[in-house]
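Recap quiz, item 2
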Amino acid sequence: MPKQVDHGERRSQLAEALWRIAERDGFAAVTVRNIAAEAGVSVGRVQHYFASKDELLLFALQWVGEEFGGRITAKVSALPEPRDPREVVRIILTERLPLQQRSRVYVQALITWLGRSAEHPELAGYLLEGTRRLCEYLATQLRQAQRDGRVRARVDASRTAEELLALTDGLSSHLLQNLYTAAEARAVLAERLDQLFEH
Amino acid sequence: MPKQVDHGERRSQLAEALWRIAERDGFAAVTVRNIAAEAGVSVGRVQHYFASKDELLLFALQWVGEEFGGRITAKVSALPEPRDPREVVRIILTERLPLQQRSRVYVQALITWLGRSAEHPELAGYLLEGTRRLCEYLATQLRQAQRDGRVRARVDASRTAEELLALTDGLSSHLLQNLYTAAEARAVLAERLDQLFEH
DNA sequence: CCTTCGTGCCGAAACAGGTCGATCACGGGG
DNA sequence: CCCCGTGATCGACCTGTTTCGGCACGAAGG
């Protein structure tokens, strides 16, 4: 057997380099050559592990996506039992907003990707999957709240879950545009949740 | 005086060519070369009228943006007096959704631009301006509805306007991802408006 | 008529980024 | 000792954008 290396490890190193560049120098500086330089390896090596730049981008996206996803589940798990559905929903939605530099860059990358994914629909599947799952989870939380009498029974939980998710995604893009501040975004979200959980 | 041509006309021709390509061949095919070929002119001519590709892109965006904006005001104006605020809001929000091929391409371009505009903040100003104005207009409609007793008085009109706008933008991005169909998007919006205008 | 000059326009070449192919190094089996 | 597959590198190539020098043309001025 010839020399073997940990492919996952190597790929992660490149993803890290990518995010360092994106955060420090902006997205325009994210080129294969720069990534290779930042990671201290040759361009050829990058291609050895990722057939194309898109593949690297997608991997990097999933890679930090898991980090952010993990943070959400951690915060939710940290809630005292029995968990307040409203608090669960609030945490999930708030955590998705780009309120710090790091998540700003991440969301910006997501949006850039989204712009391109319309043309390679097969590559967008990963995002779709995650959003759908989250949507269902939110819906179950809302139904729980309805059973508890915290949310009106005639509200359609599935539709409202979709609505809340769309709302946060819209808020995210508005935040990226600096249309308003983090505090205002939180306030908008709070206003909506107040109205939903008014009972 | 040497030969004079209508700059606006020439620029519009290039913008039209750009959208034809985007709609027919996808966004990846939108290159300066292709635009020049589609318009039947030389690459040099394109550069004569637009210093850079970004400038052309921004112009094309504003150009169709006005078209869409015009359609909205036309539809709103066509409403019988006195205009029902709920109907006004519904039209504005629905019209912003990418429900046909043409608006899909437009919204996709907007999103792509948004991804890049974070790095040239000065260029994003155009979008910002429009969103802010729309937001204020929605807020006045909501306040009108509140005076009419159609919307609860304790609802914060400004925040809700921001919320509705964010909601449609989120729905737009979800529609681009084919997360759900046009009918579902309409239903989500309807559900939200039902809740808002429940009185 | 002819010069002048500014506008509109062009094409070659420079430059940058992504991708491909040939190639080398190396280490474990036959 | 040779073979072969994996890891890795480099240079070339292609496509796309931008820069630059210059040409054409037509109106003003002599």
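Chain A touches chain B through 46 residues (CB under 8 Å).
Residues 55 and 112 of chain A are 14 Å apart (CA to CA).
End of item.
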